[in-house]
Amino acid sequence: MDVLQNLLDGLQLALGAENLLFVLLGVSVGMMVGVLPGLGPAPTVALLLPITFGLDASTAVILLAGVYYGAMYGGTITSVLLRIPGEAASVVSTIDGHEMAKQGQAGRALGLAAIGSFVGGMVATCCLVLFAPALADFALNFGSPEYAVLAFLGLILVAYTSAGTMTKSLVAVGIGLLLASIGQDPMSGASRWAFGVPELMGGIDVVAVIMGLFGLSEILVTIANNRRGESTTQHVGRVLPTARDLKDNAGAIGRGSLIGTGLGLVPGGGGVLASLVSYGVERKASRTPEKFGHGAPQAVSGPETANNSASISTFIPLLTLGFPPNGVLAVIFGALLIQGVTPGPDLISEHPDIFWGVVGSMVIGNLILLVMNIPLLPVFVRIAKIPVAVMSTLTLAVLIVGAYSINGNTFDVAVMVVSGLLGYLLRRIGIPPAPIVLAFILGPIFETNFRRSLVLSDGGFGIFVSSPTAVVLLGLAVLVLLSTALPKVRQRRRTLEVED
Amino acid sequence: MTAPADTDVNTADLRFGRIGFAVLTVLAAVTTVGAFTTLEFGTPARPAPGFWIGIVSVATLALVVTALVNPRIVVDEVSRITRADAVAVAVAVPLLALTPSLLTLLGLTVTTALSCFYWFVLVTRTSVLRSLIGAVAITAGIVVVFIELLQVPFPLGALTGIR
């Protein structure tokens, strides 16, 4: 009953004139971003941070969350019509979605994706309502050892699920942890790595780092590549799916909702992983797997449902444990910190307006997206053709102004620029930026709880396996590490046997 | 160093990746040495400010070296910087490096206009007329949103006297 009342309060908050406007703005910007190849949701959410400085905390998160799940809808459009994934989570839809477009069924693919995304979004929102408060209550019992082990597991999972080899992702985690250690020691207050620079004494601002690593490095990669896609289809066809379509795709949409909601909870998870897993599952579940790759509707509806539900369930670990599971949520974590709100187990009880307002906005936002998606399709296709020159220049201008706005000093602009150049160079050698940002955010939590645990146990490392929760979390981390290492050991042994 | 299973590794990618990881190795080594020589380490029971940094820097150094000596890891997801890439980024760097100082000297409006014009003309190679129109339009948008609507308190430029 409490939940229902809270949900109604949240809906009421989301339906307030200002919040409704920002839901609309968020999902519209998100859809545009999803449509534009190159500029993903993480850089855009980072770009919009300065706009949130003057807003209420709940309105700020409502805006940024709208951008995230809006991008999941928008990314499908260019994937299907132009075979350009506007957003990484829509890569899978370029295969069968574009094949459907070539067969004159683009509208059918987009319609199924929109309905699937709506269903997936609502399922994930229900899970957020049902499970987040319980998880937050559970997390309130966490002590320093549990938090330290949870941070360790989070970083291992982020490295495991990031693009490329795990070693490179772990290097990225190391870089993030080292960057986070600049400034005051969290326990003694002593200065570390400040080199006498007053601005470094308080540490590097996370928002400036995010803007650089995601935003600036992205436009540097874009201007260097400067690739543009060609439109290969003009005929969209019927958008609204038939009853038969809905019946044939109900299974894929249901499975996609569950896969997306589950994988959104995993640190490092989110839309990309969910859509890939969903595609694999649909292919296995299909009676006609040979149609996959040649325009199978379930290969579009399943993954698109999964990526949208994952984008919403990723909010559960952020709002209950204070752990951002991916880059976009890391930026939203930064936005809450700027507002003086620390995400964690106390958030739901201390700031119910933020939690339930965001939940309410997700219901409204998904409805808006479903309604907007179909009539505005031609407009979004046109947006996809904005020249790279205009987009990169506009992005640069917003980054400069945004970085300055964080604390009103040029030092943050310099941090943003250095982070951007560093991010560009690291990306070129295959080191992804997302684990750096997540480690940067989790670093102080990890260090403080790690050191505090050691002090409590008088230097005994056994404290990290002193409770069932810590044992389970540590066991999961070891399992993930072994699952990466063992196949390589076996392969190496096989190679040596062949050589002998 | 190259194992039989690594014969399909692209040599140019490998060279580029190795250069990158060699630089990272040097940086990680310097960080590790710096952590142990400039910060107090303490003991596990009384961890000092250098305790955490020491552990993380040693782990990072070990990972970077592991990557450096393993060709398959080095080349994974590597995207070589071509001559065209290098030129585009090299043209962008002076502007990026000067931006913090320009903001202090010229204020937000002039810096944004100049930065946009520079970026349009030199980085994206847009025609001068289009660049001028684009720079003015973007600057106007930025001024309206950030100065007029959001009232962000940008300081006056030391040389121009305008925000």
Can you give me a brief rundown of this structure?
The complex is a heterodimer of chains A (500) and B (163). With 500 residues, chain A is mainly α.
Set out the fold topology:
The complex is a heterodimer of chains A (500) and B (163).
Chain A: H1 2-14, H2 17-35, H3 41-52, H4 57-81, H5 93-102, H6 106-139, H7 144-161, H8 166-180, E1 183-184, E2 191-192, H9 198-201, H10 206-225, H11 243-264, H12 271-285, H13 298-313, H14 315-321, H15 327-338, H16 347-350, H17 352-373, H18 377-383, H19 388-407, H20 410-428, H21 433-456, H22 468-499
Antiparallel strand pairs in A: 1-2
Helix pairs in contact in A: 1-17, 2-4, 2-17, 3-4, 3-10, 3-15, 3-19, 4-5, 4-6, 4-13, 4-15, 4-17, 5-6, 5-13, 6-11, 6-13, 6-14, 6-17, 7-8, 7-21, 7-22, 8-21, 10-19, 10-20, 10-21, 11-12, 11-13, 12-13, 19-20
Chain B: H1 11-38, H2 49-68, H3 71-75, H4 83-123, H5 128-149
Structural features, described:
The complex is a heterodimer of chains A (500) and B (163). Chain A is mostly helical. Chain A has one domain. Chain A contains 22 helices and 2 strands. Chain A has helices at 2-14, 17-35, 41-52, 57-81, 93-102, 106-139, 144-161, 166-180, 198-201, 206-225, 243-264, 271-285, 298-313, 315-321, 327-338, 347-350, 352-373, 377-383, 388-407, 410-428, 433-456, 468-499, and strands at 183-184, 191-192. Chain A has a two-stranded antiparallel sheet. In chain A, a hairpin with a 6-residue loop joins strand 1 and strand 2. The longest helix of chain A is centred in the N-terminal third of the chain and has 34 residues, at 106-139. Chain B is mostly helical. Helix content of chain B is 71%, strand content 0%. Chain B is built from 5 helices and no strands. Chain B starts with 10 loop residues before the first helix and ends in a 14-residue tail after the last helix. The relative contact order of chain B is 0.09. At the A-B interface, helix 8, helix 10, helix 19, helix 20 and helix 21 of A face helix 1, helix 2, helix 3, helix 4 and helix 5 of B.
